[in-house]
């Protein structure tokens, strides 16, 4: 189970201001490309699941993940997540030809897609995806991730923090944002849900 605080920032100015304030705590920045897949008969999405390939930093590496049963309440997201590394060159070939994914026999996750969700061989389709610039900070014992997410229909800004104590983390982050005059709201849906909706949250 992945548990994260997710707070949405209103605009690029707020994102830039927060980035400047957090700069002394910066660890690294990742360029991410997220590509999603479903079964031909919507076997994953009909079970509130999604298969994702995430490419990092111009294909230096890639992670395949299976996420299921998302719940997001008051800015805290809980979702079942399973992930493992996959060769980036193979993954890139799978984006072009999704049938290749279901033929990867050594992947625990792709075995689950076949056995648990009944996706037949050659039965995956690519849904498309979006790009994300993620800056990572080590702040007050928390790993903060500041996201600038580029969809075809616009750009959104969000701060995330995975934590085993999400209520405490959320309180610290909210106080920090308020003290620095940065507006925010609770994220009400995942990036994938925004992508599928085809429009930015209001």
What can you tell me about this protein's structure?
The protein has an 8-stranded antiparallel barrel, surrounded by 5 helices. The protein has 202 residues and is α+β, with helices and mostly antiparallel strands. It is built from 5 helices and 9 strands. It has helices spanning 12-22, 88-96, 108-115, 166-179, 191-197; strands spanning 2-9, 26-39, 49-56, 61-73, 76-86, 124-139, 142-151, 154-162, 185-186.
What tags apply to this protein structure?
single chain, 202 residues, alpha+beta, eight-stranded antiparallel beta barrel, 5 helices, 9 strands, elongated
Summarize the structure.
GO terms for molecular function: pyrophosphatase activity. Pfam families: CYTH (PF01928). This protein is of the alpha+beta class and 202 residues long.
Q: Which helices and strands appear, and what pairs or packs with what?
A:
Blueprint: E1 2-9, H1 12-22, E2 26-39, E3 49-56, E4 61-73, E5 76-86, H2 88-96, H3 108-115, E6 124-139, E7 142-151, E8 154-162, H4 166-179, E9 185-186, H5 191-197
């Amino acid at each position: 189970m992945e548990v994260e605080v997710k707070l949405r920032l209103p605009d690029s100015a707020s994102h830039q201001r927060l980035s400047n304030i957090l700069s002394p705590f910066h660890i690294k920045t990742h360029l991410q490309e997220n590509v999603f897949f479903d079964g031909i008969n919507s076997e994953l999405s009909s079970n509130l699941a999604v298969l994702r390939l995430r490419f990092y930093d111009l294909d230096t590496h890639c992670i395949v993940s299976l996420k299921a049963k998302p719940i997001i309440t008051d800015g805290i997201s809980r979702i079942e997540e399973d992930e493992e590394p996959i060769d980036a060159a193979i993954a890139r070939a799978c984006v072009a030809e999704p049938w290749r994914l279901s033929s990867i026999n050594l992947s625990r996750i792709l075995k689950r897609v076949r056995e648990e969700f009944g996706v037949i061989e050659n039965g995956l389709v690519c849904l498309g995806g979006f790009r994300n610039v993620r800056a990572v900070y080590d702040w007050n014992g928390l790993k903060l991730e500041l996201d600038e997410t580029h969809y075809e229909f616009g750009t959104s800004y969000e701060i995330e923090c995975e934590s085993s104590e999400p209520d405490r983390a959320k309180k610290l982050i909210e106080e920090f944002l308020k003290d620095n005059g940065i507006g925010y709201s609770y994220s009400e849906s995942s990036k994938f849900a925004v992508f599928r909706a085809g429009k930015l949250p209001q």
